What does this fold into?
Amino acid sequence: MIPRRHLSACLLWAAMPWSAQTPGRRLEEYQVKAMYLGHIGAYTDRKDGAPLLEPTQTYRIGVVGKNPFEQHLATIYGKQTVKKAKVKVVFPRTPEEAMDCQMLFISRSEADRLEEILGWVKNRPVVTVGDTRGYAQRGVMVNFTLEKDLVNWEVNLGSLRKSGLIMDPTFLDLAVRRIEGGER
It folds into this structure.
């Protein structure tokens, strides 16, 4: 796990209003959310202690549905790593493709298919992320919320447990809401 002081500093920086982060340059909402995806991946491990990735494996972030990030994922993860692994952004369309991911962002364009998509990775160590009202209650592990120019998140603890994953307690403590029900 990441030392708590490093985690808190990174997360608090990312939670600042976008205009306060870079003088003269306002970060876009999905640029901040793209950065958070890496933090979420870095602060997530398997409950059984097994490695999340093999040493030569690539950390795969899947985006299902319309890609709201535009160029931000490619820009950020062309240079950064998650869990010391290179990152590849993919766009899975089938359960088999989704199961190859370590993280799955489910776009709001897929709200009508959410349960089907969550079924693709049911009981597997794949972090599910969204940014649509009600997604956490429906089983998404981490759901971004936007409140007064701040990107926050809520966490579905039941879904997290069923997946066999654990998240750093500081990350969980910084969530605006922790939900017990709605397990995937």
User: Anything to note?
Assistant: Residues 4-179 form a domain with the Rossmann fold fold (CATH 3.40.50). Residues 4-9, 15-21 have pLDDT under 50 and may be disordered. DSSP finds eight helices and ten strands in the chain.
